[in-house]
Amino acid sequence: MFVEKMLTNKSLLLLLSALFLTVLPSTAFADSGHNTYQYLVGVDPLCSLAPSACPDIIGAPNGDTVAVAGQGTFDIRSMVATGDGTFVHKMADGTVRASGTWQATRLLAFHSFGSGSVQGLPSNFVGGLALIQVTLKVHDQPVFNAVLKIGCELGNPPGGIHEGVELTVLGAGINFNEKVSGSTLFILQ
Which H/E stretch holds residue 8? Predict the structure, then answer.
């Protein structure tokens, strides 16, 4: 599991912390007044964790996979989500069926699992589960609406939560819900 890997390799923790502290603007620490989070899905600097950290890859029951990467922010009070990224949908035989971009349209839900300080990370690194409505685009043309489910195992997650993403494509008859690889992170702003 992602958390177990992090606990066994302190040098990666220090590297990741240093990368985030130098790349990100100054962030506030958790208190009852904070509502905004940044989310990272299979993008730098998560890619330095392991070769399988980027992009996030999930499978469907029919053997198809989708690779997803991107980032953005969301506000839990206003339920506003921003952000974008890329996707590549491959059939079971490896043939690319579609590729394009995704764009966040709104936050549907978020549940925090608490601070990553439990795992020795900065206290503004947070575990949780977010549901974000996104629009999938091919050649800049909207083709499907979908729900991007982002899970991060930091903090104190309940049983059954997995690191990575799921993608429920509305009206397409295919849902990607079988984790293959990838890493995610929420950062309290």
Answer: helix 2-8
